[in-house]
Amino acid sequence: MNNLVILPVLLPFITGAILILFYKRIGVQRFLSSVSAVGMLVLAIYLAYHVYQQGIVVLELGNWPAPFGIVMVADIFATIMLILSSIVGVVCLFFAFQTITKEREKTFFYPFYFFLLTGVNGAFLTGDLFNLFVFFEVMLIASYVLIVMGGTKYQLRESFKYVIINMFSSALFLVAIAYLYSVTGTVNMAHLGERVAELEQSGVLNVIAVLLLIVFSVKGALFPLYFWLPRSYYGPPAAIAALFGGLLTKVGIYAIIRTFTLIFNHDIAFTHKGIITVLAGFTMLLGVLGAVSQFDFKRILSYHIISQVGYMVMGLGIYTPIAVAGAIYYIVHHIIVKSALFLFAGATQRITGTTDLKQMGGLLKTHPYLAWMFFITALSLAGIPPLSGFFSKFPIIVSGFGEGQHVIAGVALLVGFLTLFSMIKIFQYAFWGKQKHTEAQAKIPAGKMLLPTIPLVALTIILGLAAEPIFQYSMQAAEQIMDPSIYIESVLKE
Amino acid sequence: MEIVISIMIGVLFTVATYLLLSRSLLRVIFGTLLMSHGAHLLLITMAGLQRGAPPLLNLEASGYTDPLPQAMVLTAIVISFGVTSFILVLAYRIYKVHKTDDLDELRGSADE
User: Fold this and answer.
1) Is residue A322 scored above 80 in pLDDT?
2) Which residues of A touch B97 (CB under 8 A)?
């Protein structure tokens, strides 16, 4: 029994509920939300320390024993994701203070921000497939509101498609749960892992595995179900786009890694090597080709989300401890770097008034700090050695070659090169060249906007320089999730 | 009984797919609504449609029903109602702003 596990879900939920009461008083909302976000970060780090010291922590809600009641489970992987969601939560919140418009602040921006975090944290901590569905829905309905908030013509048009595709995949999720329940008679993930092992994963269980993969691929933007992402992430303001781009797609990836290490890990030749690896290759390649073809700051970043989701799934597809550890490290690196890049896009948009690269130029002269911070983050995304991007791609690609998956490892190398190319394109067009913004725009100070992004840039440098201990940590997380008996035993207590 | 309901689920999914592929905003929304109803029915049918007493130990009955799918389907129905009401409001705003309910006219153009 440890009630600590449910606090990261309850804290943002209660904060969101309280913030609704103060919807007219922006000052109170800002104060309460910043206190709560920082509190969540402290809580997440404490929980991670606790789990690291004492092993997996399980909370059985209402004291019902495990396969019958609802459980919340925190293992190392889940707490890593919790820390990340809290970091992004804090940073995007402080960035939103600087950039979000008054109208959006008054129309329940902060409450839905915290409801989104409730859903995300809940999805990381739940140990029950149906509750995963519920927390996905909590997260999604908050994201529907945030993505349409402001109600511009473009946002309305594109968020309708976003909502429809997510409703469709939610219906498929229910169908998958229904089939799984009829085959195994349980929805508890640890119990499912045990039952699927007894049944020998074949026939209908493989169908269910693929169905779940489709559902999570829609949320995580995997090939061929990523087409909704670039358009819907283009509309909302930078603080929301950063939160979505950093965090929201990763929840789908987390769910894929969780289900395909814990439940469906008995037919690796079919699911992991056969389907997931191929999907990863196409996702990486087509995502980065989309990015190369674009000439818009935010759109390039959106397409990069797709291509980098491919690396994480590739780590899972290769399915060795080092590759999975690389995938976890990649998630850590990507959430931090991608949020930072979206915030930089927001800052440049605030200064120049556009996201079209052809109408930008010369920001290096007028806003040097912005330019160099962007440069560091862009190099980190492309995987240049002293930064975190290199150390997260390296184990994945090396174990790809080691396992004889030469094609996919080659694709990953090529994609890294193309990523560098398109990031340099942004740098060249937006920051070099003739100054295309007016003198008045050149005087807009960027310092206050950049303040929240400093921790992210610092983190990507630290993650690179301190790669050894952090990789050890993700290695432990990988070993823990690659051996599902640890999870199953601590939940079912046999 | 399961056979009849299974056929009905199939019909619901067919109709939902047809509606999802149409051009009108409202038809698409009805399509998602029917699809989630199909999924709910599937959830309750897949657990087996048993008859029996509620699962309380002090009741003297020959058989008990499985409460879990009922709890799950109730939650799912509430969620689908919430999302549907949200998307109806969204569709109304889209209609007011864009002055059309034709999805063909809501396609994004390449030059944005």
Assistant:
1) yes
2) 151, 153, 156
Indicate left, alpha or beta for A387 from its phi (over 0: left) and psi (-120 to 50: alpha): beta
Owner of token pair 């799918």:
B69
Reading the block at residue A77, the tokens are 């992987």
Identify the pLDDT of residue A142. Answer: 93
CA-wise closest residue to A322 among A254, A403, A219: A403
Q: Establish if A159 touches chain B: CB-CB under 8 angstroms.
A: yes
Q: B90: pLDDT confidence band, cut at 50, 70 and 90?
A: very high
Task: Tell if the CB–CB gap between A178 and B46 is shorter than 8 Å.
Answer: yes
List the one residue out of A49, A46, A42 whose CA is nearest residue A87: A42
Alpha helices in A427-453 (DSSP H): 439-442, 447-450
What is the structure's pLDDT at B110? 46
Residue (of B33, B20, B30, B65) closest to B47 by Cα position: B65
Give the count of beta carbons closer than 10 Å to the beta carbon of residue A198.
7
Contacts of B77 (CB under 8 A, 6+ apart): B40
Mutation target to probe the B interface, by most B beta carbons within 10 A, among A174, A177, A218 is A174
B35: chain A residues, CB-CB within 8 Å: 167-168, 171
Residue A231: what pLDDT?
A: 84
Residue B104: helix, strand or coil by DSSP? helix
Per-residue pLDDT tens digits for A61-84: 888 887 888 899 998 999 999 999
Q: Which of A381, A351, A364 is nearest to A444 (CA)?
A: A351
| CA end-to-end span of chain A | 16
Q: Rounded to two decimals, what is the model's pTM?
A: 0.92
Buried/exposed A345-363: b ≥16 CB within 10 Å, e otherwise: bbbbbbbbebbbbeebbbb
Residue A464's nearest CA partner among A350, A379, A387, A351 is A387
CA-based nearest distance A140→chain B, Å? 9
CA distances (Å), origin B19, targets A165, A176, B27, B104: 14, 22, 6, 15
Q: How crowded is the C-beta side of A315, counted as CA atoms within 13 Å? A: 28
The average pLDDT across A355-364 equals: 81
Lowest mean pLDDT: which of A4-13, A450-459, B62-71?
Answer: B62-71
Instruction: Please name which of A62, A52, A73, A88 lies closest in space to residue A5, comparing C-alpha atoms.
Output: A73
Write down the residue that tokens 């061929």 correspond to. Answer: A224
Give CA–CA dist A80/B101, Å, rounded.
44
Q: How many residues does chain A have?
A: 494
- Indicate the range of A70-79, A220-229, B24-33 predicted with least confidence: A220-229
- The two tokens of residue A95 are 């960035």
A301 min Cα distance to partner chain B (Å)? 16
The helix (H) or strand (E) run that includes residue A74 is strand A71-74
Residue type, A284: M
From B46, B76, B83, residue closest to A181, measured CB to CB? B46
Question: ipTM of the predicted structure?
Answer: 0.92
